[in-house]
Amino acid sequence: MQKTVQHKNLTPRQIVAELDKYIVGQDEAKRSVSIALRNRWRRMNADKEIRDEILPNNILLIGPTGVGKTEIARRLAKLAEAPFMKVEASKFTEVGYVGRDVESMIRDLTDIAINMVKTEMQERVKEKAEKVVEKRILDILIPPVTQPSNDSAGFQKDDNFNPEQASDQELNKRTREKFREKLQNGELEDREIEIEVQKSSKAPMMQVFGPQGGMEEMGINLQDMLGNLGGQQKSKRTVTIEEARELLLEEEAEKLIDHDAAVQEALERVQKHGIVFIDEIDKVAESSGDGKGGGGPDVSRQGVQRDLLPIVEGSNVSTKHGMVKTDHILFIGSGAFHVSKPSDLIPELQGRFPIRVELNSLTEQDFFDILTQPKNALTKQYQAMLKSEGVEVEFTQEAIKEVAAIAAQVNERVENIGARRLHTILSSLLDELLFAIPDDISSGDITIDQEYVNKQLDNLVKDKDLSQYIL
């Protein structure tokens, strides 16, 4: 039960093919991350003598907002079934300033890994937990008779059963069996029962801020210790049997898993498979041409880089679950680098991101592909939502081309926010429809064509002020 999950053994081509299902274009970036992911499998299968010497090639993704940098990293982590953490470099400040300590990203990654492993373990014991939950619900509906019965040992079920002659225990057994069948057939799901559930007894959040990451951990551990002083508290709730199943299943599955093994597996997974995506890394770079001196915020910026360096290089980070070695965690940096350049990062940090990939700005054709090709395309999302209301919506090719053209046009005129522009445009396009369903339109087929797109968006696109604030 506690065996480490075997990660998918995908080749670089297979990884790219999987990423293609969700991300349009950016072939070079997909190629780089697919190699980085496959290299992890290669390292794990290399000779033991050299395995620890093989370090991951961290990646720096360079490109404007909304072109798919975050999505590539997120999909890669999901594909690898790896703990994934996205952080913004600009949220950290140098040790000694008020702000987050860079080591906290590793602590957060560890917490994510532990939740991930526990969820997987709970899934493995789900069948066993379901049987325990069924018994608990049955005990609430028909409490078992505990007193001994002289004639119960030889009791057999037959058609000549006489309730008057049967003992209380026999009656109880028969009734329980009937109710067990009803439970298993889902006949009692709406019936309300009173259950006892464990209540979180955590103390209010306490954290000790100091120059060392360990002090922050001390705050977390104090919180845990104080939270557990009162033991497990329980509260009574009246819920339907359907709701009771969910609440009790989580509680029983939690009891059945080995928490120590979960922590050990999670720590191993973080160290071998963890992925940290550091967004806005360009915001902590000192622009060589911004005219600023060495003081002010730039001191903190460079300090953040120097604090990041040991984490990316490989160091031991103290967490409340144990020490985490960051040597083999894959770091993916990301930034637009409009004002600064990658060469404005401190040389040591530059050297820790050897693979640099420049992502392309999105064209009108890219917008069209984004709206039609991915499995999670926005048009498909809106179709799925409206289908839940009984309304079938179809987008014509001309309508999608027009939306793509408008997105490219608005990005050029107002501000280039990449594919995020499609969210605002489709939201405005379908605003009337989303409001009218289901009150005015409760069923039927609706076709969104080019004429409808122009009618809904023409004025917004022509009016620069409106397009600036609405689109």
TrEMBL record:
Coiled coil: none annotated. The keyword Translocase does not apply. Residues 55-359 form the AAA+ ATPase domain. Residues 362-462 form the Clp ATPase C-terminal domain. It is found in: Cytoplasm. Residues 144-173, 286-305 are annotated as: Disordered. PANTHER family: ATP-DEPENDENT CLP PROTEASE ATP-BINDING SUBUNIT CLPX-LIKE, MITOCHONDRIAL-RELATED, ATP-DEPENDENT PROTEASE ATPASE SUBUNIT HSLU. A double ring-shaped homohexamer of HslV is capped on each side by a ring-shaped HslU homohexamer. The assembly of the HslU/HslV complex is dependent on binding of ATP. Belongs to the ClpX chaperone family. HslU subfamily. This is ATP-dependent protease ATPase subunit HslU.
